[in-house]
Protein: NADP-dependent oxidoreductase domain-containing protein
Organism: Lipomyces starkeyi NRRL Y-11557
Amino acid sequence: MATGRYFTLNTGTKIPALGLGTWRSSSREVYVAVTAALRHGYRHIDTALIYGNETAVGQAIRNSQIPREQIFLTTKLWNTYHNKVSKGIGDSLKHLGLDYVDLYLMHWPVSMDKNNKQLPESEWDFVKTWAEMQKLIDTGLVKAIGVANFSTKNLQRLLDAESTKIVPAANQVELHPFNPQHELLKFCADHHIHVIAYSPLGSNTGSLQEEPSIKEMAAKYNKSAAQVLISWAIQRGTSVIPKSVTPLRIQQNFQDFVLEDADFEELNCVYKNKTVRIVVPQWGVKVFDTDDN
């Protein structure tokens, strides 16, 4: 079981190995999903300003009667807030109806204006955004700060910046056997940046759970394909935030197990036959400029 399993951030704070993702879910679905997840033992909930469901997440947390300090909550700064970070966290906390978040992530390394056009780097970029995010730590509004969708190249640029005083606590990226990003994972480990895997089940690419090797392992261990994928992700040392709005699947996803070494290594190599990146923004901006597999 994943109950009680945690990783430790570079801040010393513990983050649950398994959480609930809420991307592409309506407010009504999210309220039911978060309520069910907390009831079944989840203690990490992931949301974002752009998802439009922070209010439902906050309501479910407040109504759960679980002490706030026992829940690890992540939300994210959207691209159009890069040059107004204080407003970004303020808006999120207002929606959530909570006093703080445990982890605040820069959602993408892309700074945009209110019309979703990329700001010229001479005017603003993610390094300046990070400098502003660092100031939030002393406010108590966030316990830790991190990034999302950062390649090794962008992480290195951020770490090398003179204004960077705080190493990101986490980098949340798309990770699954079709897109394992081995090199990125190693880079983050070398720099003490915890990795959180989103879309670990392949999201809308049902073919991942139909992959022969994954189906065979599910049968071998008498588990679901989703449980195999979640267990592989946790065994790699990453936290994982599978999204589901179905209470039964939410409960099943919480039941991870340990893969045998040979099976674990086999899943590490699935991408060699098929590589798929699910989330590729159509902004006319090159975000994934390196092959981290």
Observations:
- The first strand starts at residue 6 and ends at 8.
- Strands lie at 6-8, 14-16, 20-21, 44-46, 72-77, 103-106, 145-148, 170-174, 194-198, 239-240.
- DSSP finds ten helices and ten strands in the chain.
- The mean pLDDT is 92.
